[in-house]
Write a structure and sequence with these properties.
The protein has helices at residues 6-28, 40-59, 63-68, 71-90, 107-128, 136-154, 370-393; strands spanning 160-167, 171-176, 182-198, 202-207, 212-213, 223-224, 230-233, 236-250, 253-256, 263-272, 279-284, 295-296, 301-305, 310-321, 326-332, 337-339, 342-349, 359-366. The chain is α+β, with helices and mostly antiparallel strands. The protein folds into three domains: 3-130, no CATH class; 160-197 and 311-366, no CATH class; 200-308, no CATH class. The strands form four sheets. Strands 4, 5, 6, 12 and 13 form a five-stranded antiparallel beta sheet that branches. Strands 7, 8, 9, 10 and 11 form a five-stranded antiparallel beta sheet that branches. A four-stranded antiparallel beta sheet has the order 1-18-17-16, with no helix packed on it. α1 crosses α4, α5 (107-128) packs antiparallel against α6 and α6 (136-154) packs antiparallel against α7 (370-393). The longest helix has 24 residues, at 370-393.
Length: 394
């Protein structure tokens, strides 16, 4: 083994020990978790930054400090953290799990993160002291990454996530956490209207013996229930003669009626093997208020219609605050509404009633550390711009 490889050997031996220590702690104290909440996590952050600065400033010639600010230590720290991140991607993560089934709450992840922050901090100090203008891009990148990692991890205990059920015409100010505990919030919400847009229902071929949709693997063939559409399902040709978005069954036919409990329906024609002529009839997905209807082909198969999938759903609300403000908002999936440091997300609805639901569930999230994570990301972007600009000049 060459002399140049010894620092890497030593560095990877250290992270192996850190990993083993994390495994041992996970085995001995699987149910024990360090939960630092504000302001304790802020004090820990300040203390950590001071330790980094003074350790490097006064002990920069120390062998341990020199090693912590070296490339081999940085490569080893990144490798361990990346390996745990990969495990998190491949192994299903569970909120109540332990070990590899809940990586971010494990001792292994905690030790890996602390070591990465220590090494990243020392590497940054090495370029900061003494300060040189040519290192600005490097410093912006590394300081930004350090802030994003530290604040994102230390602030995790301060994230508040609550679910608030809403009913049309009613004002609600109580929300619930995952344990079912009730919280009274500084904001109240009144649901004016819940609305949903749906994709066209799918027409499918079903085996009567096992009630399974005919198809290949997890995917199945379907024909859209839109008027005039046609397509093939296995050996059968499907033609949509008439389609109704909201319909009720009355006197042997479906009639278009926009009323709670109505369901999509379609009149179809089926031709295929063993049929002297086409088979024509109505099918419907059904709803909470009426039965589904299928077209029996008489040969062990029937043609049915799946429940239409939501394309978009939203809550039209009034939001009230303790200081007397009243604001109107449309809360959609992936389009949260922000007020008084809270973000309000569209979460769910009464799935049994579907688009006729008069109930909506919103999620209220507060993360006091999130702005600092954004600051870290912006610093990294600024560092990238500086590095590209300097490279272009050369």
């Amino acid at each position: 083994m060459t002399k140049n490889n010894k620092p890497y050997q030593f560095s990877f031996a250290i992270i192996a020990l850190i990993f083993m220590l994390g495994l041992i702690m996970e085995f001995l104290f699987a149910e024990t978790r360090i939960n630092l909440e504000f302001p304790i996590n802020l004090y820990v952050l300040i203390a950590f930054v001071n330790i980094l600065f003074f350790s490097y400033y006064f002990l920069r010639e120390n062998k341990i400090v020199k090693w912590l600010s070296s490339v081999p230590a940085a490569v080893a720290a990144i490798s361990l953290f990346a390996a745990l991140s990969l495990i998190m991607g491949f192994v299903p993560q569970e909120e109540t799990g332990t070990g590899f089934y809940n990586i971010t709450s494990s001792w292994m992840y905690l030790f890996s993160l602390l070591f990465l922050l220590l090494v990243l901090g020392m590497v940054t100090m090495k370029r900061l002291i003494p300060f040189r203008l040519k290192n600005v891009g490097f410093l912006l990148n590394h300081v930004g990454l350090w802030i994003a990692l530290a604040c994102g991890s230390l602030g995790a205990s301060d994230v508040i996530s609550l679910k608030m059920p809403l009913n049309e015409g009613e004002v609600s100010w109580k929300a619930y956490n995952t344990k079912g505990e009730v919280f009274e919030l500084p904001v109240a919400i009144k649901l004016n209207d819940f609305s949903m847009e749906l994709y066209p229902a799918k027409i499918v071929l079903v085996n009567k013996q096992d009630s399974k949709i005919v198809g290949k693997g997890k995917k199945y063939d379907f024909v859209s229930s839109e008027p005039g559409k046609n397509g093939s399902l296995s050996n059968y040709q499907i033609d949509v003669i008439e389609a109704l978005e909201d319909a009720v069954y009355f006197e042997g036919v479906f009639r278009e009626v926009h009323h709670p409990g109505s369901a999509p329906a379609a009149k179809i024609s089926v031709t295929g093997e063993g049929f002297d002529s086409s088979v024509t009839g109505w099918i419907s997905s059904g709803s909470y208020n009426q039965m589904a209807m299928n077209l029996d082909l008489g040969n062990g198969f029937f043609v049915g219609m799946t429940d239409p999938e939501p394309a978009k759903f939203a809550s039209d609300v009034f939001v009230y605050t303790k200081d007397g403000k009243t604001e109107t908002a449309i809360i959609e999936v992936n389009k949260p509404y922000s007020i008084n440091h809270w973000k309000i997300y569209q979460s769910s609805y009464n799935e049994q009633m579907g688009k006729w639901s008069t109930e909506s569930v919103v999620e209220l999230v507060r993360d006091r550390w999130l702005p600092w994570v954004y600051i870290g990301i912006y610093l990294m972007l600024a560092g990238a711009i500086v590095i590209f600009w300097k490279g272009a000049k050369r």
